[in-house]
Design a protein that fits this description.
This protein is an alpha/beta fold. It contains 13 helices and 10 strands. α2 runs parallel beside α3 and α4 runs parallel beside α12.
């Protein structure tokens, strides 16, 4: 049986309408290579990489496969936090540091880098076939430079209004990200994540509102979810959490163990890890500091001191203070190589649709 809607297949030059969600901090080029080699669209996250590492990872993909792949960038505006705000956040975190027996660090540390001139120059030099953005789009001058490379451009929408905004600015396809999705919300027109619709309410409304192909994301954990999204009008799907069960995911053993046990009612939207709403496993840190803390520094500044907590928690052999992104369908995940997962999802989905 052939896929009924071939727009995404033809747009990206792939064999199956399954994209792997780029997941910063949990995977690198190995995942993207495996997915692309299997006929899907592998995704390379770059938010925690510098420009040199992004170039290196793209080089690794190109050396391993001639198949299309996606390079993903965040495009938030770097914030400023004054000393008082930083002090409030450290004070809010102090009970967690006391529990772990480590001293609170000086504010700062690792964050998430937005798309800028340096990253744009990497795109211009290496010309990835697909470039995707999270949190809207970069400024028009940067977007024009990306478009001039010939890359197909996609971005995430969490509402119909965001989808229309993206289409008006010339994207080639839109990821409709529902509330079930793990990790950061792609919201950029409305900061209230509580108003975000679920995937299977959002997808058909976005499909009706725009002319470009729509890619469904959020709560898609097996072939049933893929088939349902395609039936609702999506041209493709972009699962994320189920790829964290693959050996190509670069997550700690404690995180893998937590994923294998998490139930549908054990994830929550929280801002305590980075300062921006993201769906994660509700561990002790999330419950005691959040889930939504008014003291959290703006994204991504909150992540600096939290990184020290995460490292100390992992060293102690406890997931209590670790950042563990997860969507609501994690229980459907199965441990298998990413390429096998793509092939299995493809075969099972075609059987269901047939």
């Amino acid at each position: 049986m052939a896929w009924r809607d071939r727009r995404i297949l033809e747009l990206f030059g792939i064999e199956t309408p399954i994209l792997q969600a780029p997941m910063a901090g949990t995977q690198a080029s190995a995942m993207a290579i495996a997915v692309s080699q299997a006929g899907g669209l592998g995704g390379l996250p770059t938010a925690v990489f510098g420009a040199a590492q992004v170039a290196s990872e793209i080089g690794a993909i190109r050396a391993a496969t001639n198949k299309p792949f996606n390079v993903n960038f965040f495009c938030h505006t770097p914030p400023h936090a004054n000393a008082d705000a930083q002090a409030r956040w450290i004070t809010a975190l102090k009970p967690a540091f006391d529990t772990l027996g480590v001293a609170p660090p000086i504010p700062g540390g690792p964050g998430r880098a937005p798309f800028d001139d340096a990253l744009c120059r990497v795109v211009e030099e290496h010309k990835p076939p697909v470039v995707s953005f999270h949190f809207g789009l970069p400024e028009e001058s940067l977007l024009k430079r990306v478009r001039a490379t010939g890359a197909k451009i996609i971005s995430s929408a969490t509402t119909v209004a965001e989808a229309r905004w993206l289409e008006a600015r010339g994207v080639d396809a839109i990821v409709a990200q529902g509330a079930e999705a793990g990790g950061h919300r792609g919201i950029f027109l409305n900061e209230d994540a509580a108003m975000q619709p679920g995937t299977f309410a959002l997808v058909p409304q976005v499909v009706d509102a725009v002319k470009v192909p729509v890619i469904a994301a959020g709560g898609i954990g097996d072939a049933r979810g893929v088939a349902a999204a395609l039936t609702l009008g999506a041209s493709a799907v972009q699962p994320g959490t189920i790829f964290l069960f693959c050996p190509e995911a670069t997550i700690p053993a404690l995180y893998r163990e937590a994923l294998s046990q998490v139930r549908d009612d054990q994830t929550v939207l929280t801002n305590v890890f980075t300062g921006r709403p993201a769906r994660a496993i509700a561990n002790r840190f999330v419950r005691e500091i959040g889930p939504m803390s008014p003291d959290a520094l703006p994204f991504p500044l909150a992540a600096g001191p939290v990184a020290a907590l995460r490292a100390a928690s992992e060293k102690a052999g406890s997931p209590d203070f670790m950042q563990m992104w997860s969507g609501q369908a994690a229980r459907l995940g199965r441990a298998m190589p990413a390429g096998e997962l793509i092939k299995s999802l493809t075969q099972q989905t075609l059987a269901l649709l047939g």
